[in-house]
Amino acid sequence: MSALPADDAAPDLLVLTTGGTIDKFYSTAGELEIREPTVGPILEQAATNLRIAVRGVLAVDSLDMTAEHRRTLTEAVAAAETARIVITHGTDTMTETAEHLLADPEAVAGKTVVLTGAMQPSCMRITDAPFNVGSAVTAAQLLDPGVYLAMSGRVFPAGTVAKDRARGVFVDR
């Protein structure tokens, strides 16, 4: 999705996708596979009038995310000309990636970066994906520059949050 006007004006918001549960689908073999980013259709259903650009950066399960993957994502954030950025990310290592971004103040200088994802794939009938994406889009517009996570109906500053695997929610650390 790239909801930019024909005059190529800068987007109000940039969404960088990295894969994770939000982008998983069940294959015909019954396995979960990462496919095309699903944030575009989620945003289209939201009928927003924001100019939003969506760019795929990675397509990996966050458990497979390496230091090199995080460097690639950090470079994409640093290169972004838009100051408001949402990153879709797998929930298992989202907090680690947020802390990695926070540790590179030059990459995020003057930018509001909000990571989000889903506990259930967005293709499922019951999923938190649209709620989390909407929360992240709103948070990116309202928060001061910094790195945040929008999950479980809350917004957390990077470095202050943990995933409670037993309950399937993000909580204060």
How does this structure look, described?
The chain is built from 5 helices and 10 strands, in the order βββαβαβααβαββββ. It has 173 residues and is an alpha/beta fold. It comes from Rothia kristinae.
Using the CA coordinates, give the radius of gyration.
15 Å
| Sheet of most strands | 6 strands, mixed
What is the average per-residue confidence, as pLDDT, rounded to a whole number?
A: 94
Low confidence ranges: 1-6
Q: Give the % helix.
A: 25-40%
- Give the distance, in angstroms, between the N- and C-terminal Cα atoms: 35 Å
Name the CATH superfamily assignment: L-asparaginase, N-terminal domain
CATH fold-level name: Rossmann fold
Strand sequence of the main sheet, in spatial order?
4-1-5-6-7-8
Which CATH-level-2 architecture?
3-Layer(aba) Sandwich
Tell me the name of the CATH class. Answer: Alpha Beta
Please identify the structural class as seen in this structure: alpha/beta
